[in-house]
Structures are given as structure tokens and as C-alpha cells.
Amino acid sequence: MTVVKTSMRNFFAHKGRMALSAVAVLLSVAFVSGTLVFTDTMNTTFDKLFAITSPDVTVSPKSSGGEGGQQSGTGKPETLPASALERVGAVAGVKSVEGAVSSESVTVVNAENKNVGATTGAPTFVGNWTRNDLRSMEIASGHAPRGPTEAMIDADTADKHHIKIGDELRAIAVTGTFTKKITGIAAFKVTNPGATVLYLDTATAQRELLGGPGRFTQLHVTADAGVSDTKLKQDVTAALGTGTYKIQTQKEAADANRSDVGSFLDVMKYAMLGFAGIAFLVGIFLIVNTFSMLVAQRTREIGLMRALGSSRGQINRSVLFEAVLLGVFGSVAGVAAGVGLAVGLMKLMSATGLELSTEDLTVRWTTPVIGLVLGVLVTVVSAYIPARRAARISPMAALRDAGTPADGRAGLLRAVLGLLLTAAGGLSLLVATRADEAAAGSLFLGVGVVFTLIGFVVIGPLLAGGLVRVLSAVLLRVFGPVGRLAERNALRNPRRTGATGAALMIGLALVACLSVVGSSMVASATDELDKSVGADFIVQPSVPNTPIVPKAQEALESTPGIAHVTQYRMVDAKLTSPDGKAEDEGVIAADPTYAQDLRRETVAGELSAAYGKDAMSVGDAYAKDHGVKVGDTIKVAFKAGGTAELKVAAITSDDTSIDKGAMYINLTTAERYVPAAKMPKNMIMFAAAQDGKEKEAYAALKKSLAPYPQYKVQDQTDFKQDLKDQVSQLLNIVYGLLGLAIVVAVLGVVNTLALSVVERTREIGLLRAIGLSRRQLRRMIRLESVVIAVFGALLGLGLGLGWGTAAQKLLALEGLGVLEIPWPTIAGVFVASAFVGLFAALVPAFRAGRMNVLNAIASD
After folding, report:
1. How many CB atoms sit inside 10 A of residue 371's CB?
2. In the chain, what is the straight-line distance between the N-terminal and C-terminal CA atoms, in Å?
3. Which of 99, 208, 378, 409 is the most exposed place for a label (fewest CB within 10 A)?
4. Which positions ≥6 away from 527 have C-beta within 8 Å?
5. In sequence order, which residues have a C-beta less than 8 Å from that of residue 147 and are 6 or more positions away?
6. 200 sits in which H/E element
7. 543 with 117: CB under 8 angstroms?
8. Where is the segment annotated Disordered (predicted)?
9. pLDDT band at 477 (very low <50, low <70, confident <90, very high)
10. What pLDDT sits at residue 397?
11. In sequence order, what are the residues at sequence separation of 6 or more whose Cβ sits closer than 8 angstroms to the Cβ of residue 691?
């Protein structure tokens, strides 16, 4: 009980000093808890949707991907015949069966020619209105479609795009374009995560989406009372046979749909938890510093306790119990803040098109437990070394000295260990840059990053002594005696300065590394485009998985001022090489003009020859693995058609980031073996302008494709800018998440300065007594903060540049061979770190300036 009482007394006596450490714990736990609540809420949303939309038993084509599943690249869903509906209807135990028609490869536009469908990854469904839809939808106004001119749309899309009954919408499908009048609006009974749904009547859906009657994309089967889904599935399977159809119970269909989105949710979840881990790592430095300084300030008090009979174990437990209290308070507040963060993330995602409702907010019992355990564990681990140091102070040494004794042997051991780790990490990074394969190089890169990071943290006090002197000579000496005082304060405790700078170092190292990687990716891709791409214009979907419909292709090909248009289709096939090995590969079926639109380097043969009759090209990696040479024959079994034997006419270099490893054949070759109905559509097309008519052709091309807003028309400048924007958006998201770690690091600087001011109370009083003004005192503390922040920035940016350079060398193995260091970004981060130091010193400097001189001198 004595240990508990002492710990409670000390904790609340220093509650102001503990506050910033508690905030660090709070932020880290909030990010973990918020991530768990957010992803659990998303899972709940999708689980409810999939459970309510799935009938008792679903029958779909074997190759279908599920609701609206598409044949690879064709833009048309796989179908089953109406005869299957009749056979299922005759099965005992079937209460009812209805045919469903649905397609995802449709673009819906309004009267202003704007896409009203989802553009951020959520699907756009166009299909027929069925009884099964009443499970998840209710007609909010109007009525369901009753004829070929009518349609009904979901309420979320109607609200977002201000669509009302009587408006006309145009739908663009591979089978053609059709216009319908909205006669009804249907509302989801559960949360709609962002999908757009347009309903037609069954006959119209079959005609407009499938090209004719008598076909369905799914059968929805309802069981009679007392018949289980499993029994019904068995009976339906017996009636239809195995191997032709995919038959699923309600649970199986829901699980399959959940699995489709599960990978996306897992990537998001673990990425966010990774950033939370970085924040925890930075928070460790803050907590270690806090407890180290508190122990140092209570050295004499600890000596008295030891002299009165307290054991080392009791002193140790007393400090650790304070850490437990800090962890509990910070973690409880962090869990609560995490729920608020999750709600904020839901609102943010809603703004991007992924709708989530607070009605589905899910806080599992494991979330607060994980948050509490993590927060307390990290805090106790962080406080262990200071607690152990406190317990080792002898009573007499503590009573003689108000500070903890320095351990020269420990300092030497730390320096040697830090140098060894840094050297090992640097060697690993060097090996990574010399690797011949990306997989092996990635392992050495990861080891190098971890070892150099730990090494810099361990060696931080040694680096602080040298770097702070250099920085002081550049930044502080101009401020005269005040600058020298600031330098002396920063050098007084190199271990503390090193730990404080290391917290800032981690976040800035990651920022610098990712900046180098991002800039190098853009520069490499731009360089590759300049060298390889000969096409003037590139046409591709702005919405994922949207094929270029035939009418849009016709508009592209008939544009005035265009010299040629190149089709580019990915066709699934199984390739059997001369060594007898068979592999699933995609071959690119393109027009011969693609050899002009993409200047591929060959290591053998000529690429133009690969577009000859029954000819093809292969990548040099494939050729090396299978011993293929020019003139050899490869057996190509097209999955949607017949089998061809194609002669290798060229071997292309894989030293590229564009079409790396691609195998080319002439489009006419593919058309001889793959039926037209199963031939994939173009997902991208290229065009070249007539000589001297680039501007006119560009304007004409945009005009020709204006009725198809789902496609982007870009020249090479547009394409490069689009690539740069995509990388920048990704980096901005990452920088935003890393901002959490930087905020925690700033709190560490604030806490260090605040506790340092308390530690130096008598010294500050003496300085004020001999003539140092309040203004000079505040400046001294601000300058100390700036030099610590800049020290951390130098370490972080140097480390990050090393990581980024090594990572780029690995990317060069994938064709991204240009190293570009974004000096403006690096310089901006460096300057911003000085402002971080100024900001962090505001409160400690203000408090120091308000000290009463006599009271400060009299303090013990």
C-alpha cells in the first residue's frame, strides 16, 4: 500500500508534467481504436447488405464473379438460359424462382452529360426489378418500371445528383445506348455503401443489357417453409447438374461477396495500424524522456526513501505504477477519442463516395481491451529503464547530488552498439542496391531500414554532441550570449537531446523516404513515356473496369485529323512453351500500329514481325525461364476460344515499366481463335494525329468522345500530369497519417522543454538575478527548441534520403530507373522543422518568463 500511495501522490503532484505524455498515449491508442471501430463498422455495413440481398439459394453461371459478374473484359455479364429457370421451378421444395438480369459495365449519365454512377470503386448496377429486391429496397416514391421507356433509381444517387421523377437518364452499355424516364425512386433498407442502382423491367433489361430475350445472369430461389437452404441447394444441384452452374446458399453467397471486399478492408486496416504503430514508437521516446527527467528531479527524494528503508524493488514498482496510471488514463481517453475518430473517418469517406452510417457504428468488446492493453503495455515498457535507473541510485549518492549519476561505461557501450547497428544497417542497404532480384533486395532493404533506425536512435546522444555544436555555430552564435546559453542547455544532457530529436527523426525519415520514392516513380515513368510512347493520344476509362464500348470506339476511329487508332485488348490464355511447361498468361492482342505507338526495345527479332500471321512476341524473362528463342513455337490455348500454335518472332526487353513482360499478337490472330461474342473489349486505346494537326486532332477527339464522359482523352502531357497527381494524392494521404507521429514528436519537444525549465528553476532565477531579461530568457528557450528540432530533422532527412535511394535502386529492377530527389520538399521540411521548434517552445518559454526571481532562486 505504501508503494501505491507514494505513486499516487507523485503522479498527481506532477499531473501537469504527465499531461503531454498522456496525450501521446491518447493519440496512439485513438488511432488504433479508431481504425478498429472504422473497419468493424465497414464490415457490419457490408455484412448487413450482403445478408439482406442474398436469396435462399442463388444460381449463377460457373465463371460469373457474382452479382453482375462479367466475362473477362467483354463488358457483358455471363448468362444462363431461361430453361434453367423452368428446371429449378420444378424442383421439390422451391416456393418460387425468378430470373435476374444485372450488369456492372454500364455508365449512367444525366441531362448535363455527367456520370451519376459511382466513380470511386463502388459499383454501378443496372438490372431488372425483382421480388428479391424487396428484401433490401422499398419504393419511396413513384412506381417500379412497367415498360421499355421507364426506369427506377436508388434514393442515395437521386439525392446526390438531384434526380427526380420525370427526369431522363442515359445509360451507355456495350450493347448500345438507351434513354429512360425515371418513374420511381427506391430507398435501401440498410446502409448503401455507395453503389448506384438503376432498375428496368425484365424484358427491357434483357434486350438492353444482354442483347436479347431468354437469358438471365442469376436465378433467385426461395425455399418452401421448413426446407433448409442446404437441402434446397442439394436438390437444385441435382436438377441442374454439376460443373455448369455455381449454386450457393444465402450464407455462401454473402460470404463470397464479403470475401471480395475483405482484401480491400484488410489493406486499409493494416496500413492504418502501421501508422498507429509509428505513433506508438515516437510516443515511447516521449514517455522515456518524461520519466527520466522526473526520476532525475526526484533523486534526493528517492535517496531519502532508500535511507528510510525502501528497497530497490519498491522504488522500481513505484515508478512503474505511475506509468500504469498514465497508461490507463491515456488509454481510456484514447479509446473514447478513437470512436470519435472513426465517426470522423466515416464522414470523410462519405465525402469521397463510400457511404457509412453511424447507425452501423460497431464497437466490439475487443477494441477497448486492445487499446487499454496496448496503451498500458507501451507506457510501462517505456518507463522500465527510468524506473530501473531510479532503483539503482544509492541512498548516499542521491542525498549528495540532485541528479542521476552519469554512467560512462554505459555511454561507451551505447556508442559502440549504435555504431555497430548503424554499420550493419548501412551494409544491408548497400547490398539491397546491388541486388539482382527485387525479392531478395527487399529483404535486405527491410533489414537495413530497421537496423539504421535503431542504430541512429542508440547513437543519438553521440551524434547530438557533434551536430548540435555545428548547428549552434550556424544558427545560434549570431544571438550572442543568449545563443551560447541555448547551445549549452542543448548539450547539457546529450541523451535527452538525442531521444527528443529521435522522436522527430522517425516521422521525417519516412516523409523523406517516401518523397524520394514518389518523385523517382514519377520521373522514371515520365522518362519512360518520353522514350517509349509514340502515340499522341491515350483514351482510357476514368471509372475502373469500364470497357470502351463499340460506339465510343467508332467515334474515336472516325475523328478527323487522326492518322491511325490502335486497339489494345488483354486476352486470357494458357501458354505451353517448347520445354513443355504450361502457364496461365495474358497476351495482348493489338493492331500492328502498336509497334509505332509503343517503341519497345527487343533483344532478338523485330517487334513489327510479331504482328504477322500466327506470330507473337515474348518478354526476355519468359524466354530465359523457358529457353525460348526466335523461331520457336508456343502453344496458345485461348480460354474463351480455340488453340493456336504461334511462332516467336521477337523477344522484348523487360527493362521497362510499361508493358513489362507483355506478349503481343496481332488482333486479327486473336479474332481467328476467339469468338466475337467472347472477345474482350478495349480497356485502353491509342491514337496518332496527322502530321502538323496535333492541336486540331486533340480538340476533335475530345469533341467526338464528349457523349461518353466515362473516358479520359489525354495527350502525353495530360497523361504525365495525371500520373503525377495520382502519386501526389497517395503521398498526401501518407503524409497526413505520418502527421500523427510528427504531432506526438512535437509534444515530446514541448514536454522535454517544460520539464527542463522546471529542472533548471534555480538556474533560471540566478540568470534573471544577474540581468537576463524575460525576453532574453524566452529567446534562449526558443533557440534551444529550434536547435533540437533541426537536429532531429537532419537525422531524419539524412536517414530518409538513404532509405529512399536504396528503395529506388530496387525499383530500377522493375523498370523505374531514374533517381530524383525532391529538393524543394526536403528543404521545405527542414525549414518547417525550425518552425516546429519555435512552436513547441511557446508554452515552456512563456512559463519560464513568468517565474518569480526570488522564488526561483529559493527553490530546491
Report:
1. 29
2. 28
3. 409
4. 817, 818
5. 201, 204
6. strand 196-200
7. yes
8. 57-81
9. confident
10. 56
11. 563
Helix (H, G, I), strand (E, B) or coil at 756: helix
pLDDT tens track for 372-414: 998 888 888 877 777 776 666 666 655 555 444 445 555 678 7
**What Å distances lie between residue 284 and 371, 744, 778, 849, CA to CA?**
16, 10, 28, 30
CB 505 within 8 A of CB 795: yes
- Provide the 3-class DSSP secondary structure of residue 772: coil
Of 376, 364, 311, the residue nearest 338 (C-alpha) = 364
For the chain, how many residues are written?
Answer: 860
Residue 181 CB contacts under 8 Å (≥ 6 apart), including other chains? 149, 150, 151, 166, 167, 168
Helix ranges restricted to H, 676-715? 694-704
Q: Residue 341 burial (CB < 10 Å; 0-12/13-18/19+)?
A: buried
Instruction: Detail the DSSP E strand segments found in 621-703.
Output: 633-638, 643-652, 664-666, 684-689
User: 458-474, pLDDT tens digit by residue?
Assistant: 888 888 888 888 888 88
Residue 564 neighbours by CB under 8 Å, 6+ apart: 591, 593, 596, 687, 688
188 forms beta bridges with 137
C-alpha cell at 603: 533483344
CA dihedral sign of residues 793, 797, 803, 807? positive
The whole-angstrom distance between residue 467's C-alpha and the CA centroid of its chain comes to 35
pLDDT attached to residue 619: 92
Task: Encode burial over 491-511: b for 16+ CB neighbours within 10 A, e otherwise.
Answer: bebbbbbbbbbbbbbbbbbbb
DSSP labels for 712-745?
Answer: EEEEHHHHHHHHHHHHHHHHHHHHHHHHHHHHHH
For residue 104, what are the CA distances in angstroms to 117, 220, 247? 10, 18, 21
Closest to 257 (Cα-Cα) out of 103, 71, 66: 66
**Three cell numbers, residue 841:** 517552445
Give the amino acid at 848: A
Sign for the pseudo-dihedral over CA of 245, 247, 252, 257: positive
- 726 contacts: CB under 8 Å, gap ≥ 6: none
What CA–CA distance (Å, rounded) separates 634 from 665?
Answer: 12
Contact assessment for residue 783 and residue 479, using Cβ atoms and an 8 Å cutoff = yes
Residue 123's pLDDT band (boundaries 50, 70, 90)?
A: confident
Q: How many CB atoms lie within 10 A of CB 192?
A: 22
CA 798 → CA 409, 416, 461, 511, 794, distances in Å? 29, 21, 17, 11, 6
Q: Give the H or E element holding residue 169.
A: strand 168-173
CB atoms < 10 A from the CB of 788, how many? 31
- pTM exceeds 0.85 for this model: no
Residue 609 DSSP one-character state: G
Residue 739 has pLDDT above 70, yes or no: yes
